[in-house]
Amino acid sequence: MELSGGRKLLIAGASGFGKEVLFCAKDCFGLPAERLAEVACFLETLAFCETTRSVLGVPVISDAEFDPELYEVVVAIGDPGTRRKIVEGLPEGTRFRTLIHPSACVSDWVEIGAGSVITAGCVVTTDIRLGAHTHLNLLTTVGHDTVAGDYLTTAPGAKLSGSCHFGDRVYIGTNAAVRQGIRLCDDVTIGMGAMVVRDIEEPGVYVGSPAKRLER
Q1: Active site positions, annotated
Q2: Where is this site: Increases basicity of active site His (predicted)?
Q3: Of the four, 16, 45, 103, 130, which is 20 to 30 A from 119 by CA?
């Protein structure tokens, strides 16, 4: 992987998923861990930077130090709504980078929006469109003819069958499965291990097999 114009990769968020993205970037660059600081750094809040200036040997800069001319950004925040707020809060002219781990199987018939991360072991087959700032976590599979809006997020082992249609800010939990042809509206969260067998037209959290809305 190469970055344009001598820019570095900037990973916004240095906590859990930020470390996962760094692992993905390491293999994308084909560099040993001790050389990652040459090409990558983390972006965090000023409060975070007051106590921590390095994570896994990679430097951390604060919001105030961010210059969009120097970096290409991946927002590594797992929650789709929070990720959207951070993306929308970045300066005009920010460039976003998509990372696809070398072990991921992604066909030539797939469109992936800017700022997305496809992690190790994922399989994304044919005639698929994934929106901007998508996160597919480890071993996710996405079947043929699936279309997803922005900020789709899967946890490890999620299985999305073919011809599904997802709105924006959909989250699919660990080892959850979605039956072929299912439609999910915006702002739907599918819990760990849930089985989605019917369309979902109302935002909320859905759990169980078959998945049902969790009332609060």
Answers
A1: 144
A2: 145
A3: 45
